[in-house]
Each structure stands twice: as C-alpha cells, then as structure tokens.
Amino acid sequence: MNERQGPAHGLSEHELSEIRMLIEERTGICFDESRERFFSTRVKEHLRAKNHERGTDLLRAIRKSNVEYEALLERLLTQETSFFRYPSVYEAFKKRVLPELHVKKFWKNPRTLRIWSAGCSTGEEPYSIAITISDSLSFSDSWNVEILATDVGRHALKHAEQGVYKGRSLGSVSAQQLTTHFAEVATGHQVKSRLRNMVTFAQMNLASAVYVGRMDLIFCMNVLIYFSEERRRSLVQRFYDTLEPGGYLFLGHSESISKMPVKFQAIVLNDCILYRKPTAEEHHKPELVAEGRA
C-alpha cells in the first residue's frame, strides 16, 4: 500500500503551527482555535494548488519568497465581499455622518474629506463609500474627496484598482447607481473613472504603524477579528490618534471596542454602532448615546 496519500495530506500539526506562528509574527494576524478548521483547510488547498509534497516544502517557500508568502496570506484572508455589505452602516454614513461633516467643514478652503478604508480587500468597500458620497447632493464637485484604501493582499488590490465587478458582488447596487457609477465592459461592470480617481489603493500591513495623516472617517470592518487582543487595542488606539476630533470609526457588526481604554463615544443608530472621537469640549459627554433611527 502506498504510504503517501498525496500532497493534501502532507501537513503535520507541527507544520501548521509553524505556518500560523510565522504569519502572526509578520502581520499580527492570529488564527486562533476558533478558526482552526478554516485555517488547516485553506493551507491544504494552497499546498495542493502549489503542488507541494509536504508542509516543509511550503514552509521553505514562504520563508524564502515574499511572493509565495503573500499568496498564502491572500488565500487565508480574502473573503467574498460585496457593495454596501452592511446597509445600516451606509445609511448612518449618509444620513448622520455626512451632513455633520458638511456643516463642520463647509467654510473650509479647500473643503477636504479624508477617509481610510483599512482592510479594503477587492475594493467594494471604498467604492461603496465613494458612491454614497457622490449620491449626497451636498458633496458635489466642490469637495476634495480622498479615500485611502489599504490591504495586505497585492492580488486583491490589483482587482480593486481595475474596479471590474459582476454577479453577487453587485447585488445591493441599485439600477440607478449601476447606470450612474458603472460602465458595462466585457467582463462585468467597471467603476467609472470619476469614482476611481477618488480612491488611492496601497499595500499595507496594519500591524506596522505607517503614518497616513489625519482622517475624518475610518472604515475597518471585519478586520479586527483577525488580530490578537493586544494588537486590537494598539490598532484601535492608532485609529483614535489618526482621527480628527469629531471623526468617526466604523467597525463590523461582530466587533466591539467597549472594553478598551480608548475614549470613543459609542453612538447607537438602529443596529449600527458608530464610534466618534470627541472634540476637546466634549470629553465630559456620556460614552454611550442611543439615538434611534438614522
């Protein structure tokens, strides 16, 4: 009987553990017990796809080559995403946050709005932000809108820069938005250049502190879940320091920073929680505010 059962089975627990530790060391991303099955399945898929015989071959490849390492990381991190993935977040953004920023910055010259999409994957999130801004009448061409979209995955960013989408990814885009903001191409629908020009894509590892300048808004949805508690705390602190006073942090539905020492104001709107950095005059205000409907 053949002892070797093919590359898919050539991974020991020790090798999986080594790969897990290497990723955490380099990126701060932690695949804990709750993701054990997902992690081993994806690594085995990668082993097969790369035609490696054993886990040691894969380990050698990712230690030696950045390209090989990033390819594995993308397989582990890239998830199916879509435009307007959390409708309540974009509703709050449109009805609560943008009008507030409009009033705050109306007399500034130039009128600049700076937004960071941290962990932008294949680009649906930053383009959803750009569409929401474009559809808000008060944010017409008289505003200078800068959206910085960062991700650790080079392949995902390439997809994002091309801005071509199809199928389920566009499920929540209205017919009006599709006509206004997309052009039909052979492989799907491409985001029009007017919106693409609002977004700058850059490869970034969130575990490394890179200066991005001051931001009015930060979207970091379903990213914190990948980090250890300690990394989460330091990242949320960095977001707080990066935000302008009165700026907002948007997180995914399953993510909470209520037990962290940073002093965001948590504003509850329907099933969405916005985290607002208080201005100097507002530090005495309550930390949790329920406002009902957006």
Per CATH, the class of the largest domain reads Alpha Beta
CATH topology of the largest domain: Rossmann fold
- What is the correct CATH architecture of the largest domain? 3-Layer(aba) Sandwich
CATH homologous superfamily (4th level) name of the largest domain: Vaccinia Virus protein VP39
Largest sheet features: 8 strands, mixed
Secondary-structure element string: HHHHHEHEHEHEEHEEHEEEE
Could you tell me the mean pLDDT? 86
* Uncertain spans: 1-8
Shape verdict: globular
Strand content: 15-25%
Task: Write down how many β-strands occur, each being a DSSP E stretch of 2 or more residues.
Answer: 11
Work out the helicity level.
25-40%
Q: What is the end-to-end distance?
A: 66 Å
Rg is 21 Å
List the helices and strands and how they pair.
Elements: H1 13-27, H2 36-49, H3 55-64, H4 66-77, H5 87-105, E1 112-118, H6 124-134, E2 144-151, H7 154-162, E3 164-165, H8 175-181, E4 182-185, E5 188-191, H9 193-196, E6 199-203, E7 215-220, H10 229-242, E8 243-251, E9 265-269, E10 272-276, E11 288-292
Parallel strand pairs: 1-2, 1-7, 2-6, 7-8, 9-11
Antiparallel strand pairs: 3-5, 4-5, 8-10, 9-10
Description:
By secondary structure, this protein is α/β, with parallel strands linked by helices. 39% of the residues lie in helices and 20% in strands. The longest helix is centred in the N-terminal third of the chain and has 19 residues, at 87-105. The protein starts with 12 loop residues before the first helix and ends with a strand.
